[in-house]
Specification:
Blueprint lengths: L1 H30 L7 H23 L2 H12 L3 H15 L12
């Protein structure tokens, strides 16, 4: 049950990453320049108040180095890349384990 849920989340994240990659490509072709939709901009466009609340919570509870160089680096990456990496990790976590050869159970 957990493996199928992890694979489902992974496939949804990979699909979102692919959609965002196609969006970047279509917008880049239309504008005749390279356009990269960053994760921070995506989060701001979806719900800016939650990004500000997350920033305030992280800065209040964790050391200052966590938000400024840590999380802002992730938020400055292309959204399709982050969704692709997260989706790949979830799919790998949800895969079946290979049977051990030569071991009796």
């Amino acid at each position: 049950m957990i493996r199928s849920l992890l694979r489902l989340i992974g496939v949804i994240a990979l699909a979102a990453g692919f959609i965002l990659l196609m969006y970047d490509g279509a917008k880049s072709i239309a504008d005749s320049r390279v356009y990269i939709y960053k994760l921070g901009q995506l989060w701001t466009d979806i719900h800016a108040a939650s990004l500000q609340a997350a920033q305030a919570r992280v800065q209040a509870n964790l050391p200052a180095q966590v938000w400024d160089p840590g999380i802002t680096t992730i938020l400055d990456q292309p959204a399709w890349l982050i969704f692709g990496v997260v989706g790949t990790i979830f799919i790998l976590l949800g895969r079946r384990r290979k049977p051990l050869i030569g071991y009796a159970r």
